[in-house]
Amino acid sequence: MNLLCKDKGIDLLSIFYRMKYTFNDLVDIMARLRSENGCPWDRKQDTHSLLPYLVEESCEFIDAAQEGDKEHMCEELGDVLFQVIFHSQVCKEQGDFTIDDVVQGLCEKMVRRHPHVFGDAQVDNANEVSRRWERIKAQEKNNLKHAGESIMDKVSKSMPTLARSQDIIRRVAKVGFDWGEAGPVFDKAQEEFAEFRSEMEKISPENANVDRLEDEFGDIMFSLVNVARHCGFNANIALQRANNKFEKRFREVERRVKEQGKEIKDVGLEGLQKLWKEAKLSS
Fold first, then answer.
1. Alpha-carbon distance 274 to 172, whole Å?
2. Cα torsion for 238, 244, 249, 252, to the nearest 10°?
3. Which of 163, 166, 161, 159 minimizes the C-alpha distance to 55?
């Protein structure tokens, strides 16, 4: 069904709600929204104005995935896909590329980077797949153009800070700037803690070098990102889990305070710590 058609004798809206949509229907819907008789808000957008929504929708999917909420995962993935379609439609109108070009390029890349699936190459494990992926990626046209430049040029400046730290560490590790075992990584983190504590002990009303303290604290965080990588997990996901855990427990503290008929600001630190321990045991 062509979603761009107009027929005043047909209740198109009711048909739209009943029909089974396809990917091409989604592309047509986006084109309709951007058309002369489409939505004023959608027509006003460009690739720059849309960027915050791509980040927002991606984060909402991550939230749903971490909560194991399958229904919202499906919905949020749809929102992420819509942003991809939206950006592609804007670029099509500018004569840059289309969603078909996006799909074509992606399929070619996946086939090219998986010769062990679509070709005759043999691999024994996931680590070998990863190494082969990086070799093929380095040989591709878009990457050959940047050969010889700093690997730091490939680190996105738009990444959230913690994720950017992970990417920096991952990239330098691939070229050998990394300890081969976890022990020295833990030692480095402890060294950074010691340096931070040393700076804290120097602070006085006459000497409050907050910039130096902040610098040392940043070193701690960066070293802990590397600890996480050597332990085999994602530091950003770990921090998100910690945030969610803290929020859940503090909500429980608030609930218990409310049950007592009190305001949380009137409970006092000792009382709040007691409730926190109770919330921790119940979670």
1. 45
2. -170
3. 159
Report residue 64: phi and psi, to 5°: -65, -40
280 Cα distance to chain centroid: 28
Ramachandran quadrant class, 159 (left: phi over 0; alpha: psi -120 to 50; beta: rest): beta
pTM of the model: 0.69
The residue with tokens 């921090």 is 239
pLDDT at res. 13: 61
- The secondary structure of the chain, three-state, reads CCCCCCCCCCCHHHHHHHCCCCHHHHHHHHHHHHCCCCCHHHHHCCHHHHHHHHHHHHHHHHHHHHHCCHHHHHHHHHHHHHHHHHHHHHHHHCCCCCHHHHHHHHHHHHHHCCHHHHCCCCCCCHHHHHHHHHHHHHHCHHHHCCCCCCHHHHCCCCCCHHHHHHHHHHHHHHCCCCCCCCHHHHHHHHHHHHHHHHHHHHCECCECCHHHHHHHHHHHHHHHHHHHHHHCCCHHHHHHHHHHHHHHHHHHHHHHHHHCCCCHHHCCHHHHHHHHHHHHHHC
- pLDDT over threshold 70, residue 1: no
The pLDDT tens digits of the residues spanning 46-57 come to: 999 999 999 999
> CA-CA distance, 160 to 55, in Å (whole number)?
10
- Please compute the mean of the pLDDT values over residues 262-274 and round it to a whole number: 92
> Which tens digits make up the pLDDT trace of 22-79?
999 999 999 999 999 999 999 999 999 999 999 999 989 988 998 899 999 999 999 9
d(CA 179, CA 173): 8
The token pair that represents 6 in the structure block: 């107009």
The pLDDT value recorded for residue 145 is 66
